[in-house]
Amino acid sequence: MEISQLLKGVLDLAVLAVLRDEDGYGYDVLRRLRAAGLDEVGDASVYGTLRRLYKAGLLTSYVVPSEEGPHRKYYSLNEPGRLRLAESGKTWLSFASTMNSLLGEAA
């Protein structure tokens, strides 16, 4: 199974999790996802996910001037985003537990 296919289903959850404790701008979120082990995640996917989560009302944003180039748009998790993270996290843990059981039986 390809990692890119799995990422499509969980990228929203991964982005929300990365923003749980610290706000971030697009490249920063991408860097944190890759540092966590999601090396396969693409730039466009992360930027698109941030825009979609913002439009869905799960993130807020603000602009911070940068001395090293263009201003940076930071995203932060708001209350609806925290609720979605909690709900999606429970769903993921349940799904992962089921898969672990199935794979354990196959071994």
From TrEMBL:
Signal peptide: none annotated. Residues 15-87 form the Transcription regulator PadR N-terminal domain. SUPFAM superfamilies: Winged helix' DNA-binding domain. It comes from the Bacteria. Pfam families: PadR. InterPro entries: Metal_resp_DNA-bind_regulator, Tscrpt_reg_PadR_N, WH-like_DNA-bd_sf, WH_DNA-bd_sf. PANTHER family: PADR-FAMILY TRANSCRIPTIONAL REGULATOR, TRANSCRIPTIONAL REGULATOR RV3488. This is PadR family transcriptional regulator, regulatory protein PadR. It comes from Kibdelosporangium aridum.
